[in-house]
Design a protein that fits this description.
binds zinc ion; globular; single chain; Metallo-beta-lactamase, Chain A; 16% helix; 27% strand; alpha/beta; seven-stranded mixed beta sheet; 14 strands
């Protein structure tokens, strides 16, 4: 799906989130994954006339062509695991790319990226301006708020608010019983929530830093989220399995679904 087609005029007017890639852990390909997609985590947020990208997995290569020639682009990194960085090594962006990440493990944002993108692992490093992902700051008219999730090595939960709309990105996190996500995501228009696993396999996946999709649905209900997209699908999860899970999602007046690569979710 490289170079996703987009109507530039409509794009400029629409508050939306486009699922550029939502596969967890590693990219996959093949007919079993055609519907929900195989590219790893990357999301394009359009809010109050501003554009922000969340994470730089291989889905980053699905960014609309016209954005590649924008003078600047802001990319917020939830955490530096490889599936959230894979797209940056070959990202053909020509303007000023600002990457916001939280200092982790004593490494600055730039040190984290260069650990992955430097010889002998990779021949070139991304051309970017590196900035600290603070707890609260603004990007144009968007207010950014972050909180810490539950994941090996840490992860930032990210809330973007602008023009009266709010999007919450909660990837790579384990939802705990009395989840703090409910207050962080309270009354949001769209919650993107980790649901890599299901409750039936939870006993063997506990401690991996992800959540069961049933718990993501509960979290959305507790938060009063208007829409939910369950993200970060397990690399072995086929389209037919995700379709079967979808049929179990309660249809109780909410717009809840498993995220599908290429979907544009209007806010
Ligand atoms: Zn991940
Ligand atoms: Zn991770």
């Amino acid at each position: 799906m490289i170079g996703m087609e987009y109507n530039k005029e409509v794009f400029a007017l629409t508050d939306s989130v486009t699922i550029l890639g939502t596969r967890g852990s590693v990219p996959v390909s093949g007919s079993k994954y055609a519907k929900y997609g195989g590219a790893t985590s990357s999301y394009l947020v359009r809010l109050d006339g501003e554009t922000v990208v969340l994470d730089g997995g291989t889905g980053l290569l699905n960014l609309p062509d016209f954005l590649l020639s924008a003078p600047s682009l802001n990319l917020l990194l939830s955490h530096p695991h490889a599936d959230h960085l894979h797209g940056l090594g070959v990202f053909p962006f020509r303007g000023t790319l600002s990457i916001y990440a939280k200092t982790r493990g004593g490494l600055s944002p730039e040190e984290q990226l260069l650990r992955y993108y430097s010889p002998p692992l990779w021949p070139v490093s991304p051309k970017a301006v590196y900035r600290e992902l603070e707890e609260r700051f603004t990007l144009g008219s968007i207010a950014v708020e972050t909180a810490e999730g539950v994941h090996p090595g840490g992860v930032s939960l990210i809330k973007l608010s602008g023009g009266g709309k709010t999007v919450v990105y909660a990837s790579d996190t384990t939802l705990t019983g009395a989840s703090s996500l409910a207050s962080f995501a309270a009354d949001c228009d769209l919650l993107l929530c980790d649901g890599q696993f299901c409750r039936a396999e939870w006993s063997e996946k506990r401690g991996w830093g992800h959540s069961a999709w049933e718990d993501a649905a509960e979290a959305a209900r507790a938060a009063g989220a208007r829409k939910l997209r369950i993200i970060h699908h397990s690399p072995t999860r086929t389209d037919s399995e995700l379709d079967a899970f979808s049929r179990k999602l309660q249809s109780s007046g909410f717009d809840w679904a498993f995220a599908r690569e290429g979907e544009e979710v209007e806010l």
